[in-house]
């Protein structure tokens, strides 16, 4: 359900980009040891919110797949409550 290669005509949003954005943002604000503490409080909070939303999106996507009977080949959501 989350594809790296998506096309404008497939009626799907660019979910891969949605998940890559928090990773890329957080990588620039202190993910590397030499940058720890370099982010402002606002940047750190923004990064945290983005990551929380990405996790929520992945969990909801897995829930939707289970509800629709779709077997995901890369994610195992069978352990979710």
What does this structure look like?
There is one protein chain. This protein has 81 residues and is mostly helical. It has a domain at 10-28 and 37-68. It has two helices and no strands. Helix 1 (15-28) packs antiparallel against helix 2. The protein starts with 14 loop residues before the first helix and ends in a 13-residue tail after the last helix. The mean pLDDT is 78.
What does the average pLDDT come to? 78
For the largest beta-sheet, the strand count, sense and barrel status come to:
none
Gyration radius over CA: 15 Å
**Can you count the helices?**
2
- The computed structural class is mainly alpha
Low-pLDDT runs: none
- What level of helicity do the residues show? 40-55%
Q: Strand tally, please?
A: 0
Strand content range = under 5%
List the helices and strands in order.
Answer: HH
Separation of termini?
20 Å
Gross geometry: elongated
Quick summary of this structure?
This protein is mainly α and 81 residues long.
């Amino acid at each position: 359900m989350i594809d790296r290669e998506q096309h404008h005509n497939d009626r799907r949003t660019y979910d891969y980009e949605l998940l890559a954005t928090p990773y890329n943002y957080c990588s620039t604000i202190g993910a590397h040891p030499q940058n720890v503490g370099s982010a402002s409080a606002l940047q750190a909070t923004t990064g945290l919110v983005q990551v929380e939303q990405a996790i929520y999106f992945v969990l909801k996507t897995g829930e939707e797949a289970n509800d629709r009977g779709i077997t995901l080949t890369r994610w195992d959501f069978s352990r979710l409550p």
